[in-house]
Amino acid sequence: MHIHRTVYRDDHEMLRETARRFFERECLPLQAQWDAAGQVDRETWLKAGRNGLLCLTVPTEYGGGGGDFGHSAVLIEELYRSGVSGWSLGVHSDITAPYIVRLGTEEQKQKWLPKICTGETVLAIAMTEPGTGSDLKAVRTTAVRDGDEWVINGSKTFISNGLTCDMVLVVCKTDPSAGAKGCSLIMVDCNSEGFRRGRKLEKVGQHAADTAELFFDNVRVPAGNLLGVENKGFMHLMEELAQERLVIALYSAAKLERLLEQTTEYVKDRKAFNQTVWDFQNTKFKLADIKAQATAVRLMIDYYIGEHMRRRLTVQESAIAKLFATETLWKCIDDMVQLHGGYGYMLEYPIARAFVDMRVTRIFGGTSEVLRELIARQL
C-alpha cells in the first residue's frame, strides 16, 4: 500500500515473514483438500503449534507466545493476504483462548492452555442459537447446578471449528429469569456424555470452515469449568467482543489490499478491444476509488490496532472499525469482480473466492445493522 506503518515494532515484523512462509508452503497446497473434506486437517493445527503460530498472546508460562495483540494482528494479516480460506485460526487463538487467559483461575490455565497452544486441543466458542442470532441476551441453552456439576441443555448453531473442536466455550443461562444478567460462560469437553455435533452447515463460501450445529443433552461438566463469575457472562462477552470485531476489521483491510494488487495485475494483462482493460478510463477511475478507500481503511485500522495494544479500544470504536472495513470491502469486491468480467465469476480466481468467502464479514461478530445501533447510541 506504500503507507509507512508505525503501529508495528521490529519484533512484529520479524513474525510476518515466518507467517507468510507457513501459510504459502504448508496451507495453500492443501486448500483443495480442505475444501473437499469440509475442514482443516489436524496435522496442520499441530504444525502451526510447533511453529509457534498459535495463541501468540498467551503468556509463555502456559506455552503461548507471550506477545501482544500486534503479533496476532500480523499473523491474521498474513493469513488473509495468502488466500488461505476457511481456517478458523482466529476463533481458536484470538477469540476463545483470551477468555481463559483473562477469566481463568490458575488451575484452569495450567490445565487447559498448554495443549491449546500446541494445537492438541482446538477451541470453539458457542454463542449463537437457532432463534437468537445477534441477540445474545436471548440465549436459551441452560446450565443448572447439581452438586459439583453443571448440567447443560440446549443447542447452538453457526459454530466455527464445530467439527474439529476438543473444547467449546458455551454461553449458558444460569439464571433464566434474569435476562442478560443471568448468563454464564462454561467450558465443555467435547468428549462429555450427551454432547453431540450436528451436521456440517453448507455455506456460500469458506468451504474448508467446519461450521456446525452443537447439541447438549444433559451434559454434565465439573463446577470448576465455569469461567469468570456466575451470571456475569454477558459482561464478560462485551469485554472481549471489541477484540473479535477488530480482528474481522483488520483482516478485511488486509484482504482488500491484496485483492486490489491482484486486480490491478489482472487488468493490466487482460486484453479487450485491442488494448488492455487497464487502458480504459473507467478501469483507472474505479481502481483509484478503491485505492483511496483501501488507504482510508488501513489508516483507521492501524490506529485502532494501536489503541487496542494500549488497552484503550472501546466497544463503539470496534463497532466503527468493523462496520467501515467490512462495508467498504464488500463494495470494493463487487467493483473488482466487475473489472474481471466473466472470469470474476470463476472460483479459480481470487476475486471470485473472496466474493463468496468475505460476504459473511458483514454478518458475524455483530451484523452491520447491530453495529450501527451501537454507534448511534453514543451520538
Automatic annotation (TrEMBL):
Start and end residues of each Acyl-CoA dehydrogenase/oxidase C-terminal domain: 231-379
UniProtKB keywords: FAD, Flavoprotein, Oxidoreductase
Cofactor: FAD
Source domain of life: Bacteria
GO MF annotation terms: acyl-CoA dehydrogenase activity; flavin adenine dinucleotide binding
All copies of domain Acyl-CoA dehydrogenase/oxidase N-terminal, residue ranges: 10-120
Location of the Acyl-CoA oxidase/dehydrogenase middle domain: 124-219
PROSITE patterns for this protein: ACYL_COA_DH_2
Pfam families found in the cross-reference section: Acyl-CoA_dh_1, Acyl-CoA_dh_M, Acyl-CoA_dh_N
Family: Belongs to the acyl-CoA dehydrogenase family.
Protein name as it appears in the record: Acyl-CoA dehydrogenase family protein
Organism expressing this protein natively: Aquipseudomonas ullengensis
